[in-house]
Specification:
six-stranded antiparallel β-barrel; 1 helix; mainly beta; about 190 residues
């Protein structure tokens, strides 16, 4: 493992073994003996605490244990205490997304979305409106690979505790054009 690792940029789930509490984060770097994770809860971790990791990949997930070594802000460094094992993925890989904007067509008007992650058929966004589960909207995304119009069905919506008057929304997406959607997935490294 190391540079260019396909798990870098993916979602990770951490469980602290001392109290079985779960945390989420994003893999920034992973190497033979260490992993760096962006995790909002990192400042509360204690040096030497052991965590069970699951890093979600497209075809397989990595599982391993690691000890917390240090943190700078929300970036936590862990030392691997065992070699990662690959297991079949039990959920889709989610990748961090930057620089992609979107607009949601809402009855009250166009609403700007901040996309923060994407999976094979889903998006995680920040939105100024509270949306109801099951509602479907048209979303226009603008990205370096071109524009893409999708139907987006709300799967969950909850207040973004760290962002005032914002909601974290998970969408399941479908596109009219399979070609455009395939191009989008390929650009994000989510091709099937």
């Amino acid at each position: 493992m190391g540079k260019g690792n396909p798990y870098e940029g993916n979602r990770a789930r951490l469980q602290r073994l001392s109290d079985a509490k779960f945390f989420g984060g994003w893999v920034l770097r992973i190497a033979d003996k260490a992993i760096v994770v962006k995790a909002p809860d990192a400042p509360g971790f204690q040096t030497g605490e052991t965590f069970h990791f699951q890093v979600f990949g497209q075809d397989a997930s990595l599982v391993f244990q690691a000890r917390f070594a240090s943190a700078i802000g929300d970036q936590a460094v862990f030392e691997l205490s065992q070699n990662p094992r690959q297991i079949p993925s039990n959920e889709q890989a989610r990748r961090t997304v930057r620089g992609i904007t979107a607009n949601l067509a809402h009855p009250s008007g166009s609403v700007e979305l901040e996309i923060f992650d994407a999976s094979y058929d889903g998006l995680g966004v920040l939105c100024a409106l509270e949306l109801q589960n099951g509602e479907t909207y048209q979303v226009q995304m603008q990205s370096p690979v071109g524009d893409l119009q999708v139907s987006a069905t709300v799967r969950h919506c909850k207040p973004a505790g760290d962002r005032l008057n914002r909601y974290r929304v998970g969408f399941q997406i479908q596109a009219d054009s399979r070609t455009e959607l395939a191009r989008w997935r390929s650009q994000l490294g989510l091709a099937a």
